[in-house]
User: Fold this.
Amino acid sequence: MSKKEREAICLICEEKKTKGIYLYHQFLCRECERKLISTSTSDPSYADYVRKLKNLHTPPLYS
Ligand SMILES: [Zn+2]
Assistant:
């Protein structure tokens, strides 16, 4: 019997991973989680991550 790991698409690198966390109901892989944690809030790439998270958290109201 094999334990099936749940696969999810990481919202930042958009790769299928099994290890990671759920953030705002979206999956964030371990690698990106580490990057996010180790990235300074003043770093431009941090703002980029946050923007991605916000985009997912607040979908557009108009279609
Ligand atoms: Zn990732």
Notes: The mean pLDDT is 83. Helices lie at 30-38, 44-57. The longest helix spans residues 44-57.
